[in-house]
Amino acid sequence: MGGACSRKRDQREGDLDDGYGGSARFSRSFYFRWPSRNFERDISDEQDNANKAPSLLELAVRETCKNTQGIKSFEKLPRDLTQKILNELVQTQALSRELFQAFEDCAIQDIYLGYYPGVDDSWMEVIGSQKFCLLAVDFSGSMVTDEGVQCLQICENVEIICMNECKYISDISLSYFTGFTNLTSLSFQKNKLITPAGMRHLAGLPNLKHLDLERCPKIHDGLVYIKGLTKLEKLNLGWCNCIRSSDMKQLSGLTNLLELQISRSKVKDFGITFLKDLKKLEVLNMEGCPVTFACMDTIAGLTSLTTLNLKSCYISDFGCRKLEGLGNLKNLNLSYTNVSDAGMVYLKNLKSLQFLNLDSCKIGDQGVQNFKNLVNLKSLDLSDSLIGNHALNFLTGLSKLESLNISSTMVTDMGLHKISGLTSLKSLNIDSRQITDTGLMALTSLTNLTHLDLFSARITDYGIGSLRHFKKLQSLEVCGGGITDVGVKSLKDLTDLTYLNLSQNGQLTDQALEALSGLTKLVSLNVGNSSVTNAGLQHLLPLKNLTSLALQSCKVTLWAIQKLQASSLPNLVIVRLR
C-alpha cells in the first residue's frame, strides 16, 4: 500500500497515465488542480472525441462505473485506476454514499466532492481513511461540520483543502490543521463562523502559499495571525467588508505575494501605503474600495503589476498619471471611475496592455485616439461611454483585438464598417438601438466571431440573414423585436450555437422552435415574450444538451415543461416561465 502513495509532491495528476481522457483535463487553476467545470462534461470535448476510439483504460473505467452493484471495496485495484473510477463516478453523478464506502483505505490522492449532493460528515470518514496518501480534498458546499473535518487530522500530507460555503464549519475546524506543514492551499470562502480565534491556527501553517478568505465577514483583526506566513503568494480578501486600512499593516511583510484581492473591502488610501514593499505583486484587485488618487503613489511603485483592477474606485484623470510607469500592465480595469479623455493620454505608452475596460467612463473620441498604438490589445470595453463613429478610426490598426464592446454608445451603422477589418474579433457587443440591418451587413467579414450581442439592435428578418457568414457563432443575442419565424430560419446553419437569446420578439411562434430543432449543441435558449405555445415544445426534443430554457410570458404551462423534462430532456434543469 505504501508504494501507491509515492507520487512526488509536485507531480500532477496529469503527469500520471494519460490514457484516460479524464486525466488530461486536470490543471492547476487559481488554487486547485481539479478538472475544469466542476467535473461536468464539456459538450464540445465529448463531440470532438466522439470519433476517437476509447483507450483500454477508458473502457475499463467506464465499464466498472456501469457495474458497481455488489462492489464492497476498490482497495485491490491499482491506485491510478481507483482514482479515475472515483473521478468518473463524481463526474457522472453516480456516486452514492454507500458506494463511496468502497473507496475506504484506497490510497486516493485527490478527492473532489465540491458541491456534490448529499455530502456530510459520514463521507469524511472515507476521506480520512486515505491518511498520508491524501494530497487534495474539496468538500465545498457540503453539510460537513467540525466533527467531520476532524477526520482529516490524520491526513498529515494534505497539500490542498477547499471548504467553501460550508456553513457548519467554525473556528474549531481550523484547529485540526495545526501542524499541517505540507499544506500549501486553503480556501474557506463565504464562511460566517470563522473569527480571529480560529485564524490564530493559521500561524502554524508555514508553507501556505494560497489563502482564500473571500466573503468571510468576521475575520477583522485576524490578519495578525498570517503576517508570519512569508511564503504566501496569493491572498484573497475580496468582499470582506470587515477588512479596514489598519488590517493592511499585517500584510506589509508578505513580500512574496504575487496576487492580492481586497475588492469591496473598506481599505482606504492609508491602507494601501502598507503595500509599498510588495514589489513582486503582479495582480492587485481593489474593485469598489473607497480609495482616491492619493493611493496611486504607492501603486506606481509596484512595477511588477500585470493586472490592476480599480473598478468603481474614486480615481480621476489625476490618478491616471501614476499609471505611466507600469510598463508591465497587461490587464487594466478603470470601469465606473471618473476618468475622462484627459486621463487617457497616460495610457498610450502602456504597450503591454492586452485587456482594457473603460465601461461607463466619460471617454469620447478624443480619448480613444490614444489607443491606436496599443497594438497588443486583445479586449477593449467602451460600453456606456461617449464615443461615436469617429473613435472607431483609431481601432483599425489593433489587429490582435479579439473582444470589443461598444454597446450603449453613440456609434451608428455608418461607423461599423470601420471595424470590418478587425478579422481577429471573436466577441462583439453592439447592443444599441442605433444599430440596424445596415450596420450588421457591414460586418460580414468578421467570420471568426463566436459571440455576438445584438440585444437591443433594430435587426429584422432582412438583416438576420447576414448571420449566415458567422459559422463559428456559439453565443447570439437578438432581442430588438423585429424577428419573425422567417428570420429564425436563417439561423439553422449556425450549428455551433450553444447560447441563443431571441426574447422580446413577439412575432415568434412554434414554427421558430421548429427552425431551431437542428441546433443540437444548444445549452441555453431564451424565447421569452414570444407567441410560443405548448404545441411547439415538441420541436425541442432533439436538443438533448439543453439545460436552460426561458419562456417568460409565453403560452406554455408548467405541466408541459415537466412532461418534456421527464420524457426527453432530463438535463433541462433551469426553466423560466414567469
Automatic annotation (TrEMBL):
Gene3D superfamilies: Ribonuclease Inhibitor. The keyword Repeat applies. The keyword Repeat applies. Residues 344-556 form the Disease resistance R13L4/SHOC-2-like LRR domain. Residues 1-25 are annotated as: Disordered. GO terms for biological process: SCF-dependent proteasomal ubiquitin-dependent protein catabolic process. Keywords: Repeat. Pfam families: LRR_14, LRR_6. GO terms for cellular component: SCF ubiquitin ligase complex. This is Disease resistance R13L4/SHOC-2-like LRR domain-containing protein. It comes from Selaginella moellendorffii.
